[in-house]
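Batch manifest line 387
LIGAND: pyridoxal-5'-phosphate
JOB: complex structure
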Amino acid sequence: MRIYFDHNATTPVTPPVAEAMTQALLEDFGNASSVHHFGQRAKARLDEARSDIGRLLHAEPSEIVFTSGGTEADNLALRGVAEALEPTGRRHLIASAIEHEAVLVTLKALARRGWKTTLLPVDATGIVRPEALEASLTDQTAIVSVMHANNEIGTIQPILELARLAHVRGALFHTDAVQSVAKIPVDVRALGVDLLSLSAHKFNGPKGAGALWIKRGTRLTAHMTGGKHERNRRAGTENVPALVGLGVAARLAVEKLAADAGRLSQLRDRLEEGVLSRVAGTAVNGVREPRVPNTTNISFDGVEAESLLIALDLEGIAVSTGSACSSGTLEPSHVLRAMGLPAHRTQNSIRLSLGAGNTVEEVEFFLSKLPPVVEKLRSLTRVPARA
Ligand SMILES: Cc1ncc(COP(=O)(O)O)c(C=O)c1O
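JOB STATUS: finished
ARTIFACT:
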């Protein structure tokens, strides 16, 4: 039995997505910029995908720029706005301390080129306090970037309130919604943001496909330059099959979101309660609500997270110690550290993220395997009492 509880790292492509992609790959091979029949056919498939994303986000299709994924969407948002607003003298950028590396490392790169940057703290539950943003905003702030849902702990930020504060000071607001799109309702107008990133492979679409929603009228400089693709905002021949896959995944999300979210939160809660009641010395990291329905992050006293991950993998269960990008290093999670958790919790925590294919049987199997695995790891590291 192999169980996959790592859907925040990536999700499997579902059969309708794979079928639509295969068809696009074999039949819609034209260059979407070509005037002839083949080109127009490819363009029609892209238009369809753009409309499907528009429906998912309650946005105009013309406001959607296709990218190679969440990382590129975040880069385009931050670099694009920073550069466009540079002549206005707005050279200050703000992001939360618990952003994905796609935002944090981009901010560092811009800091090296002379932009002033501020990282907002989060409280012990993983939430950015509006007062913290208010205190950091200046008349020079160009853009504020705060993620909608966190990839490690799943907590949801008060985006509307934060965006309002940014707007009062004339700054733009970007949200990385890579971990919330298709898990909870995402309405760009209701969130009050100016830019929003998403990535197909987090909701049963293919890897290497994503989008940046840019509110009409927002100033942004393209950073991939070349042809006039994507209304001059992102040059390069579009990857039609991958974007068709993104569109179908978005369409299916619109149809299934409410039902999936209800089922997943029940499953996640059963898993969480099961762990807390069967294994002593465990605690949930981050606030439990508001949180995306599929994610939990739990610390295990006296157990090193990497060892637990490997021991569970040997039992056929895939979990994660945080963001996939930082696994392989023994760096404690920057998210848990920012929340002020003590070292023994930042290094002893695993993330369980469920997806549409997971079942009650899988959760029960996990709950039956976990206690002896934890017990064994604890016995290996326990210091023998002195005589
Ligand atoms: C919150 C967040 N932002 C951005 C990304 C990067 O997206 P992609 O893998 O499509 O580049 C991820 C992926 O882990 C993520 O979780």
